[in-house]
Amino acid sequence: MKLRTWPRRLAPAAPGRHSEPARRALPELCPQDRATLLRLVSLLLQYPDPDLIAAREEMAAAVGRLPESAARDSLTRFVEWFRAIEPMALARAYVETFDLRRKSSLYLTYYLHGDTRRRGMALLTLKQRYRVAGLTPPEGELPDFLPVVCEFAALAGPAAGEAALRQHRKGLELIRTALHDGGSPYALVLDALCAELPGLSEAERAAVADLALAGPPAEEVGLAPFGPPLNGLEVRP
């Protein structure tokens, strides 16, 4: 059940209760370090298959080489847990966190469009954006899967590459809040990602709170191809 994203490689070198990740007065990450951070987030949010387990020390070392930042601090704390936990327990934690809980699903268009036809169009638009950049989305995975979106952002650069992350900033905040509410260590990975993205305005924070209470939009017709996966078997053949 392995996610086949673009090649796994590392560059050298809440509503109400949960505040936004701290943003220190530090120099912005250079493009290479920013790409490394995004690639690490992509890897750490994937299902922990044997290849990912084998790369834990490499990923921890890559985190340690990042310049000082709130994002690096969050990833450092996460990889301490990630390296220490047994593989079976890690796999179980991943499935329970992301595959069995709709509120922390990693499929971004679900939060913006819910179960509506607009979600199908958003998925097609996102896939087209990848192809225009000369990249082919992985087979067997929806293009809005957050690890795929982060890997694209790492490859395509801050302007065009991170556009989808900025567009779905409210959805990312909902995932982050749900992970914090559930006490999941994976909240630290979302903290790291959100710390490097634009913050939320007061209106956006209010919209996130409303969406957390009401849930995404719903529609009853023509949704079979685009429903959010409820477990790993539906998305990792």
Structural category is mainly alpha
SS summary, helix count:
13
Radius of gyration: 17 Å
Reading the helices and strands in chain order gives HHHHHHHHHHHHH
Q: How would a textbook summarize the main sheet? A: none
Looking at the structure, what is the overall shape? globular
Strand tally: 0
Work out the helicity level: 55-70%
What portion of the residues fall into strands of 2 or more residues?
under 5%
Which parts are unreliable, with pLDDT below 50 for 5 consecutive residues or more?
1-17, 220-227, 229-237
Would you tell me the overall average pLDDT? 81
Distance between the termini: 5 Å
What does this structure look like?
This protein is mainly α. The protein is 57% helix and 0% strand. It has 13 helices and no strands. α1 packs antiparallel against α8 and α3 runs antiparallel to α4. The longest helix has 16 residues.
Keywords:
237 residues, mainly alpha, 13 helices, 0% strand, disordered N terminus, disordered C terminus
